[in-house]
From TrEMBL:
It holds the Pfam family EGF_laminin. The keyword Signal applies. It comes from Crenichthys baileyi. Keywords: Disulfide bond, EGF-like domain, Repeat, Signal. InterPro entries: EGF, LE_dom, MEGF_diff_regulators. Residues 81-92 form the EGF-like domain. GO terms for cellular component: membrane. The keyword Ribosomal protein does not apply. This is EGF-like domain-containing protein.
Length: 156
């Protein structure tokens, strides 16, 4: 504290008797004007705010638990989820709807002779008697296709 009657707190970045000590924090919002202890920004922890939140945690002093699922990344500052390919939703717990795949389910499946496609990769799930192939009818789109297969009986 400063002032004739000790009513003024230390300026930002200083602490202690007569505000003569400098704070040593990193990634901080502020430090205590009394003892210099650090108040870390969201996403940081530790005595000097030098340790990033460990995986699965976020917020002030990393004391919040991430709710993300299906191998989604969790933002250490605000806890928002970045979904892996094939998933969407606030917590990445909703699979891509049939007919779409990839990041944020933005890609469209155009499978022929198939029972949909893999929501992560877009690979066609070919029906019995068909095998995967790729046809590119134009420079704008690749349509995955399941080509007819031929079965030859074993010979003795």
């Amino acid at each position: 504290m400063q002032g004739d009657d000790c009513s003024i707190s230390c300026p930002l970045g200083l602490y202690g008797t007569n505000c003569t000590s400098s704070c040593y924090c990193h990634n901080e919002i502020s430090c205590s004007h009394i003892d210099g202890s650090c108040i870390c920004r969201e996403g940081w922890q530790g005595v000097e705010c030098t340790i990033p939140c460990s995986s699965g945690t976020w917020g002030f002093n990393c004391n919040q638990t991430c709710q993300c699922t299906n191998e989604a990344a969790c933002d250490p500052i605000n806890g928002t989820c970045t979904c892996s390919p094939g998933w969407r939703g606030e917590y990445c717990d909703v699979p891509c709807p049939e007919g779409s795949y990839g990041l944020d389910c933005r890609e469209r499946c155009d499978c022929v002779h198939a029972d949909g496609c893999d929501p992560m990769t877009g690979t066609c799930r070919c029906l019995a008697g068909w095998t995967e192939g790729t046809v590119a009818p134009s420079h704008q789109a690749n349509i995955s296709s399941c080509s007819e297969t031929t079965w030859f009986p074993p010979t003795d």
